[in-house]
Amino acid sequence: VRQKSMERFHQSMCSKSMESAIRPSSTLPRGGTCRPVAAIEAGMLAGAEIVTGSDAEIVASHCTKDLSWLQPSIDSLEILGTKVIDVHIYSKCGLAPIGAPAGAHLHTLPNLGRNDQVYAEYLATRHHSLPGQVFFLKDSSFHYGGHDFKKYERSAVQMAQELRTRGFSCGRAPPHCGPAGNGSQWHERAVLEAFVLRNYKEKHTQRLRGGAPVNATFNSPTQSIGAWLASVLSQPTYSELRAREVWPVCYGGSFAARREQILRVSAADWAALAKSLSRADNLEEGHYMERSWAALLSPPLPTNVARQLLCHPAVKKAPYSGMLLATVG
């Protein structure tokens, strides 16, 4: 019953968000056609370099969920030709991981910043010794069961296959909200940078586990995702992000990236993000970071491609602020 209730809640939130889509902010050249997002993406992949046979590490953020799904994921990656050389499990909630692969490195951290802090800390400390690919996975990645998120789930193999032609791959497909519209990974930066999430349900807190501070507040001292990034990142990194009209966004907290994309951001920037995400367990900055990973770990789109995408309506309301609709109706 609870699972069905959660599914109805997400579907309702998804639909309300999609229904807020505003008119496109760009006008195509005279005689131009607004092509479907899928067609634009296919054009982007045409002629892309294919990278295969890389070594990889898995970084798993653990709180309470069973990790028995990890070994089958590793086995399937090996069959594909991706050699997993190390598995790092970062446990934050005071519980020993169940089902961890043999030989995995277990790290215990204070319960601060959740999975986003884990990933940023890893990138800061391992910046000089990264493998060819890194898979960042939450312990809940494959625990959605009958939840609405289950249908958006992407396996480690699907992520690895996408990494062959792109430097970044998301562990969750964009949401589909039926008549309200279907989303895409692409977001209009000018709308997204104003995103805030002033309220978050107490039932999602983990503050009573793993020594998280009890009195920490959810709300960020900064007033939006854009203001937060400006306050944390170095000027060159922030300026490069802000120059882009369109950002990719990966929801769900699981993704993979190639080494050359990770190195586009300095170790100092990753360390600054990790520090900012250490303010509390349940914090607004985590939702900002969730919406920033893909942009930080992906190269900018060519201007002509970004302008093509901007012919699609952009969602105005949270939780999908700025998302460009792939289809409507």
Can you tell me about this structure?
The protein is of the alpha/beta class. Helices cover 33% and strands 12% of the residues. It has 13 helices and 8 strands. Helix 3 (70-80) packs parallel to helix 5 (156-163) and helix 4 runs antiparallel to helix 10 (267-276). It is globular. The model has no long low-confidence stretch (mean pLDDT 87).
Brief description of this entry?
By secondary structure, this protein is α/β, with parallel strands linked by helices.
Distance between the termini: 29 Å
Fraction of residues in helices? 25-40%
Count the DSSP helices: 13
Which word captures the global form?
Answer: globular
Count the E strands: 8
Q: In what range is the share of β-strand residues?
A: 5-15%
Radius of gyration using CA atoms only = 19 Å
Mean pLDDT: 87
Order of helices and strands: HHEHEEHEHEEHHHEEHHHHH
Q: Which consecutive residue ranges, at least 5 long each, have pLDDT under 50?
A: none
List the helices and strands and how they pair.
Layout: H1 2-19, H2 37-45, E1 55-62, H3 70-80, E2 83-91, E3 105-108, H4 114-125, E4 133-138, H5 156-163, E5 168-170, E6 186-188, H6 189-192, H7 225-232, H8 235-242, E7 246-248, E8 255-258, H9 259-262, H10 267-276, H11 284-290, H12 293-296, H13 303-309
Parallel strand pairs: 1-2, 1-4, 2-3
Antiparallel strand pairs: 4-8, 5-8, 6-7
